[in-house]
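Q: What does the predicted 3D structure of ABC transporter ATP-binding protein look like?
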Amino acid sequence: MIQLRNVSKSFKGNLAIQNLNLEVQKGEILGLLGANGAGKSTTINMLLGFLNPDSGEVHINDIDTNHNSQETRKLIGYIPENVNLYPYLSGLENLDYFCKLAGLKYSKSELENYLTICGLENKVHVKKVSGYSKGMRQKVGIAIAYAKKAKVYLLDEPASGLDPLASNELSVLLKKLASEGATILMASHDIFRVREVCNRIGILKNGILVKELYSKDVSANELETLYLQFMQN
Ligand SMILES: Nc1ncnc2c1ncn2[C@@H]1O[C@H](COP(=O)(O)OP(=O)(O)OP(=O)(O)O)[C@@H](O)[C@H]1O
């Protein structure tokens, strides 16, 4: 579970996050929408324990990320927009390497299975990552988190630059992870993808959560209109 309570964060006197209260339950996918500079990455960086809030509390599964970041990071799978992998290793070798770094030793068939579950076609498991598309690298990134038994997934702009098929595959995978009990927060500019994949949506503007709603309560067009209204006011 993710919890932010009355969180504020400023950089050199400029407020990036103002009094943010946000919860994402186990099994839920929350989409954080907002323009450039709204505070989405700052929120994710506080959840990762890379930034400390000036005030308020940030918890992952009831553990404070500010004081126990090593512990909370073990619970988190972080998927940045561009997943960083070793290009001259295969997907399988990358997964093996990152699992070993985390102290996990899996058999080849277990590693293959994680990649397959995360949607990477069997025939490319042993191909060098340098030839992978962005979507394929993302699947390996998610497989690494999955193999590490992440409880919480944080995704920053996951759908950006993906073609519609890859983007749809990502949605299916995230819903599957949530159905297995993962807590997922994704920051995005993609109103339509967020509505399609997330149970709940938060709109951030200048570091303030100006709206929270359930995806089922709005059509894509209504969400777009609402979002634009907030951005223009
Ligand atoms: N390390 C930093 N030093 C100074 N200012 C920062 C730093 N990180 C973020 N900011 C500022 O905090 C505010 C929020 O930035 P943040 O990167 O969280 O927004 P964002 O919603 O992720 O934007 P984008 O969609 O462009 O990634 C912005 O005004 C940004 O300039």
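A (community wiki): The structure tokens above were generated from the sequence. The helical segments are 40-47, 69-73, 91-101, 108-117, 134-147, 164-179, 191-197, 220-232. The beta strands are 2-11, 14-24, 29-34, 55-60, 63-64, 76-79, 152-156, 183-188, 200-205, 208-214.
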